[in-house]
User: Fold these one by one.
Assistant:
Number 1:
Amino acid sequence: MDDPTIATYDRIAVEFARRNFDLTNGRYLDAFARAVTGNAPAERFRILDAGCGPGRDSKWFRERGFQVIGVDLSAGMLAEARRRVPEVEFRQADLRHLDFPDGHFDGVWCCASLLHLPRHDVPAVLASFRRLLDHGYLFIAVKAGQGEEIEERTYGPGSPRHFTYFTRHELELYVERAGFEVRELWEGEPTPTARHGWLNLLAQTALRQPLLGAVAVVFDDKGRVLLSERADGRGWNLPAGFVDALEGPDETVVRETREETGLDVEVERLVGIYTRPYRYKGTDWRLITHAFLCRATGGALAPTKEALQHGWFSPDGLPSPMSSRHHVAILNDAVQGRCGQLTLPVMRRIERGR
Ligand SMILES: C[S@@+](CC[C@H](N)C(=O)[O-])C[C@H]1O[C@@H](n2cnc3c(N)ncnc32)[C@H](O)[C@@H]1O
């Protein structure tokens, strides 16, 4: 094993277990277990004990009925865990390369192990914990402080372990950036023999909602559709935008059409709801778009900061390039709706392409 920290744990596993197996972590385990289960039976919930060491906390979860899997990189620690807690499944794995399916767990318990990773690995490991939980809870215990160091005091010379220390603020930021909301943070003061206190954090997966958008399909009295050439160079599109926090999508199309084109419109009817994958600010989302057939009521077309120019186009002669396949599908449905071939609003899922 190349990692000196893991080599140390392999060597000190028996002594570590002797010193730590009977310590009690009850207050935090209770709070975590309560959060995970609500009032439901523990048997329904799967816990990952991430960096489980000799399995003390895995045992606690198992005794209370949880399904639990312990992972650790140290073969020595796993041998102790298997001997002491044979009823639990333990796997050898690096926290940096966990290969469980997405959403496999309801809780990730990470006690005194994240602190052994180099700081630059921490965001990716927390992001992988987030992927392993659809909706669930994360517990982390790390040592409070600043910087990183190789420590050889606790188990003596020749027993180096890498430690990364965290301030309270740093830990909260890492966890929030990985897609969690902090629920509790208990700070333990350093004891006379320990230089570092502990930060014990309970977090819940933050709700990730899809993006909401709205699109206006506006025809003139010759049956031509209003399109705008985007100022960002991505081609032509229907007036469209994201729904604001205090808006309904029917209000969004009116606002967006005015902002983008200068035209005032009113909504005539819903054409349909369209969903598609969408990349926004470096993250994958699903975009849910409400498309409305709208009628112009006033205003005048003018270039804006979002659009270089506007035009009325026959649906058979669209300008090129169109910015998205999605808008072409919406336009086709609106054309069919206009000539009575489509009477109800449609619901379309678009899987690939722009
Ligand atoms: C201080 S012990 C804590 C063990 C246990 N969670 C407890 O609270 O008693 C740290 C554990 O993290 C494990 N560990 C360190 N780096 C790891 C990594 N990259 N992947 C998996 N486990 C790791 C070590 O092998 C060790 O068992």
Number 2:
Amino acid sequence: MATKFIKNGAKVVITDILHQLGQDAAVELRPNATFVSCDVTRESDISDAVDFTVSKHGRLDIMYNNGIVGNSPPRIVDLDMTEFDRIMSINVQGVVVGIKHAARFMMPRHSGCILCTGSVTVLMGGLSPPEYSISKGASLGSSNQLWPRCESMAFRLIASRRSPFRPRL
Ligand SMILES: NC(=O)c1ccc[n+]([C@@H]2O[C@H](COP(=O)([O-])OP(=O)(O)OC[C@H]3O[C@@H](n4cnc5c(N)ncnc54)[C@H](O)[C@@H]3O)[C@@H](O)[C@H]2O)c1
């Protein structure tokens, strides 16, 4: 995705918990990409990454909430609720906090685009581990609930639905 954004003229700040992989990707995409280590379960990491972007580039045009985790318990009765909370804090809280901190800069400028990757598993049961599908549904719901609260309606919040299936042409 970073490559696509850069091809379209963007300067990209890549964030991830995988420090070395992120650094390597930024070096590969030099000089149009920078890497900032960010654990989306920590609000301060997201806030710092947004502040870094604005201080480096003078603006934040697009926030792309894309990172996820999933897990696969063999049976519903084996669902580990500590693991469930961890997945929700990455896949849902991470998205909500991402929207919150992007909005800090986008709302005053009356401009910006927030992308949140969804999943077809929200629409069809049994495709993915339940906690992953539940978290993607909550993340889509969060996007739907938050955009009317972005008082300046001039920025777009898009929740895309990504599918592992090829569309039938
Ligand atoms: N791969 C598919 O077939 C598919 C299908 C439907 C939807 N999607 C959606 O597309 C998006 C990307 O999926 P993918 O398969 O490319 O994912 P991926 O596993 O390749 O990448 C997810 C990234 O999130 C990072 N991450 C994990 N925990 C983090 C944390 N706490 N803080 C910051 N970063 C963290 C990981 O290190 C990893 O680099 C996701 O939102 C996913 O739900 C994917």
